[in-house]
Amino acid sequence: MEFSYPCANLFIMEPSKPTEGAEQKASMTQVYRVTTPGTTLQESLKEMIDSQQISPFLATDIMSIFDKTIVNVIENKCRNKIQIKGRIIDYRNCESLWTLMVKDANFKDFTSTKTVAYAKIIAFDGKNSSNK
């Protein structure tokens, strides 16, 4: 199977436990927070809280700003596309949040190609404007 998505709506993660949350917006921010910038920011904020440089309340505010900013940047600045070829072994759609498990996934952009044994892809339906 072959399909192409704008990168604004596509996040590739290693398989793990599914994110739990009542609201889709919470799921969206969880996906962004497990990216390298999100993880690094959370670790830095935790260190600053532990050393009492900032309060937990301020760290929560910073993460909220990060959530809004990353959504805005990805939606408005990212125009690259990626092609994915592989065998879908499992998929789910819950409130415009797609989760795809792909075996022998081949990711291709304009400059490079990468193949992995398994990939978990989380994608948001770009047509649903209630995600913002």
Automatic annotation (TrEMBL):
The lineage of its organism: Eukaryota, Metazoa, Cnidaria, Myxozoa, Myxosporea. Belongs to the TFIIA subunit 2 family. GO terms for molecular function: translation initiation factor activity. This is Transcription initiation factor IIA subunit 2. It holds the Pfam family TFIIA_gamma_C. Residues 85-126 form the Transcription initiation factor IIA gamma subunit C-terminal domain. The keyword Disulfide bond does not apply. PANTHER family: TRANSCRIPTION INITIATION FACTOR IIA SUBUNIT 2. The keyword Nucleotide-binding does not apply. One of its GO terms (cellular component) is transcription factor TFIIA complex. Residues 29-73 form the Transcription initiation factor IIA gamma subunit N-terminal domain.
